[in-house]
Amino acid sequence: MMEPISCAVHGVNLMALRPNQKALVIGDGFMGQLFAQILQCYGLVQVDLAGISAEKLALGRRLSNIHATYKTDCETLPVEAYDLVVEAVGLPATQAQAIQACRRGAQVLMFGVGAPDAHFTMNTYDIYQKELTIKGSFINPLSCMDAISLLESGRLNISDLISHELKLEQVPELMEGKIGETTKALVTFPN
């Protein structure tokens, strides 16, 4: 668990955070859930979560002090409402939503891994006029100690994000898609 937590912490550490900021995390999967919890650990006044799964959004509300959730396949995200937006999906559509959700002076963290040839369209005047800061985040340099401290503090709920506990011999089934609705699997080894 330290590797994904460290990656999220690295992304958060790239941003200039202040307690009065309002944040939106786009992506209700494992990494989006981690970001929502970590941003709250860093003291942001409001963290909202957007995604496509009603179950995962409900999990986010249960695990974190989420202010609002948005089911993006049937709800529109607020426009120009956030100081910080974390895009944790990697699709051109969600990347464009991240830019639109930003208010003046906002920061965007492009964390979701997109296809190498994917592109999205944005209005360059919006970046200029809104004075946006857009950053990417790749891997986890120099963030392991912060991640360990967060995990040791007990403020991150990781166990509820693990959807399956598997034996080593079940890994091929998981990789072939024979084990459904897996968010994060923990592989146990015999003693």
Describe this structure in words.
Helix 1 (about 1-15) crosses helix 2 (about 30-40). The protein is about 35% helix and about 20% strand. The protein has seven helices and eight strands. Helix 7 (about 170-175) links the parallel strand 7 (about 165) and strand 8.
Summarize the structure.
By secondary structure, this protein is α/β, with parallel strands linked by helices. The chain has helices at 2-13, 30-41, 54-63, 92-100, 124-130, 144-153, 171-175, and strands at 22-26, 46-51, 69-71, 82-87, 102-110, 133-136, 164-167, 185-188.
Unreliable segments of 5+ consecutive residues: none
Mean pLDDT: 94
Secondary-structure class = alpha/beta
Instruction: State Rg.
Output: 17 Å
Distance between the termini: 20 Å
The order of strands across the largest sheet is 3-2-1-4-5-6
Per the principal axes of the C-alpha atoms, what is the gross shape? globular
The percent range for strand residues is: 15-25%
Secondary structure: helix percent: 25-40%
Determine the number of helices (DSSP H or I, runs of at least 4 residues): 7
- Report the major sheet: 6 strands, parallel
